[in-house]
Design brief:
Chain lengths: ~180, ~180
DNA sequence: GACCCCTGCGTCAATCCGCCACAGGCGGCT
DNA sequence: AGCCGCCTGTGGCGGATTGACGCAGGGGTC
């Protein structure tokens, strides 16, 4: 056993936290905060069974690590994680060899499952148009996450008043701080 | 050239219209309204350079056509079109061999471009978090489209009051009034 | 200390929402 | 023909929500 995993993530808190939790699940975790570190790990390590890549590490694009990674460890399972994901980006990542693509916030269960499952044989009942409220709420959470919980900044990029964001957040004490399962 | 294209789409109006426009672009179009028809075309036709698959054709899943299609015509470029798409669905389609994945409504230019471009070398500046209002508006448009413009039904699945939807729609004469491009 | 930006909270007027109506259109049904 | 069901527009009203204030305090940086 002792699966080896590369974790590329530039958010310090998330990198440490997620890394610890993955170790508890039996992975040997190589934490990287930048593309450079990741490239070093890639050449120095003997084996790599999985990788979790943040799509946006500072100015670099985590996707660029996919090809060299697969070239050296063709059996490595790659999960791309991103703050704000899009369908075109997911397609691009998948075409370049990623096994799965997730948007933050994602629970550990989400992550492990995405890493292990084979997404292509998903039964996938796709057309369940979400309610406006759900859509809004999830988007708000994502943007908030994207700004490290900074309410003012999030409100600015959401195009709504800071006060309004505060009020909305207060109404849902659920799910924001505890990376719980949603959906 | 006379490229051959398979078009699988269960909405009658869209199938005819899109088919016509594709023919004007030099494609020889094989229109299919069901998986069965598509399977027939697949076995009878001599050549196939491209395919546009609706993900939801009645009860079937258009994705199931990807493998047989690629098995017979490995060079065929496959575009999956869907009413309401999701990232997991896009990943699944791509892993099964689709070249690209689009959500309706999509303009002809979108479609042609998605069919021809190589989505994996997308420059892809991904994190441009949209404003809440934009997100909402686009989602409303999509759901409306999904219900053929039926305001009451759309409001129901959006989880808001019909009156509210009406009022919101009235406030944006902007990008919605052109029945020009699709349908 | 002087800034600067953040967070939380209160207030108040303007706006929006949900819900009640109503009238009319369209299509299928007995 | 009626009747029924569902759709679309429109109006109005009470209550909720929003946006723009202000203010106190926390936490950085120069």
């Amino acid at each position: 056993m002792n699966q080896q995993l590369l974790l590329l993530e530039d958010d310090d808190a998330l990198r440490l936290h997620l890394g610890n939790r993955l170790m508890k699940h039996g992975y040997r975790v190589h934490r990287c905060a930048s593309m450079l570190q990741a490239a070093e790990v890639l050449t120095s390590v003997q084996q790599l069974d999985a990788a979790i890549l943040d799509q946006n590490v500072a100015e670099d694009n985590g996707l660029d690590l996919i090809e060299p990674l697969l070239q050296r460890f063709p059996a490595c399972r790659i999960l791309v994680l991103t703050g704000y994901g899009s369908i075109p980006a997911a397609v691009a990542a998948t075409r370049r060899g990623a096994h799965n693509y997730l948007t933050k916030p994602a629970s550990l269960t989400d992550i492990l499952q995405a890493l292990l499952e084979d997404p292509s044989n998903m039964p996938d009942l796709p057309d369940a148009p979400p309610s406006l409220e759900r859509l809004e709420w999830e988007h708000i959470q994502r943007v908030l996450e994207d700004h490290q919980g900074n309410v003012s900044a999030a409100a600015r990029t959401l195009g709504i008043h800071r006060r309004t964001l505060q009020r909305r957040l207060k109404k849902r004490p659920s799910a924001s701080e505890y990376h719980r399962d949603r959906r």
